[in-house]
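pinned: reference chain
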Amino acid sequence: MSDIFHEINEELRADRARLLMRRYGGYVIGGILAIIILVGARQFYMYWDQSHRENIANQYQAAVLSDDIVGNLAGLTDETSGYGMLARFATAAELSKSDPASAEAEYLSLADDDTLETVYREGALLLSVIHAPDTVSRDERMARLDRIDHNVSSWASLKLEWQIAISLDNNDMASALAYMETWKSLSIPLTPRARARQQLLESVLAIKE
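pinned: its structure tokens
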């Protein structure tokens, strides 16, 4: 008797299984297919992304080693990866050798690009001051440098160094001395150029006394 009941239970389970498959089999198969498609799409994207990055890296390397750096980098400046930003900085650096105004404009464009991290935007601001044409006023250069918060910026020493240099170039000893004192208060090591300017300031002040 137990064998009969066992066979009946097996038949009932089989019937229930067939009923469930008729009812939900399409969903199960669809779910499995969806998982297969998603896994395949992810693998394809990872392969494409890696291949794309390698291609962009090779293009960038070839461009900066070419005779027409600006022209060959033009196709990479809109790239959304880090190479797009690198291409823009490299373009500005190349332009600074022959066209300071265009280089300055490129650096300012980078400085105003909200999609970039602060450290890169501030670096671009500094470079826009360093490579600014002679037509750019002292006040404009200082205004750009003032956009960099030396209390938190990684560029604090360079910012203050250039503020000191610009002040000295304009014979504004009081401002140069104030920037030097700010530098000291931040406990940032003085660069060799800053130390030379400090000695110059001290010499000028000693003469005045």
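why pinned: Residues 105 and 128 are 8 Å apart (CA to CA). Residues 149-209 form one domain.
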